[in-house]
Amino acid sequence: MDEKEAEVIRVAYGRLAEIKASIHRDIHEQVPERHIAMYHGVLQQLAEIGFDISIFKVPDEWKKRWIGRSGDGGSLDDRIGYVDRALLLTKVDSLLSYFKVESVAFTGPRT
Question: What is the pLDDT of residues 59-81, one digit of tens each?
Fold first, then answer.
């Protein structure tokens, strides 16, 4: 593993830890889709250095839409995407389990 890959892994681990902490701080059982986008961004970074992360993606069937008024009085057809907190945490935790702390090394499936 070269230094660039090691840095990507360190940053990815830090982002995953923050995503998990952010999900835990939220009091709602539904997590907004922006967290899914951040999580998938981490997956993309790992894929770009050769890791096979396909099993860690949040499946489309887990994503739901809530229809209601936005906080600024928007129309009733505003769509807000979310995923159940427990399901997203399952994916985040499973990816974090692939991180093996040995001088901040990552072991996991490669393509």
Answer: 999 988 876 655 565 555 456 78
